[in-house]
Amino acid sequence: MSYKIPKADILALAIREALREQKTVVSQAKLTELVNHKLRRMDPSYAASEERVRRVTLGSKLAKVEIQTRELEERSRNAPCPVCGKKRMRRIQNKTIFEGRVTLGYRCRSCGYWTGIRRKVPVRYVFNAEDVEPSYIEEARRDPAQTKL
Description:
alpha+beta; 2 domains; 3-stranded antiparallel beta sheet; 6 strands
């Protein structure tokens, strides 16, 4: 069965509609199910993956995302963010008594995911759109003269 991949703005619209109906969604799979239902109402051949729905939600700031993790035995390293896919995460460092530096973990600048000495793996995402304002309101606050409603 063939499918079409919707553009990011169409996907963001479907995510916004899904989150308008259900303000808090407790899993990435459930959000994707709701979004794909909305997409199929627009075009029956549209489909989106869980990862793409999560990344567009984070990138468009349509919801606040709580990332629940579990710790692995292996050490963390500076790798791409497993949540949003940004290239590198910022080191969390501390100064030692002898003016040296110790890396305590890594934090993503765009989505807020962080890992300590031991690597943390995301296991559940909770999407909450209750306190999130629509993007046009944020734009109006930044520059009210340039905003078209």
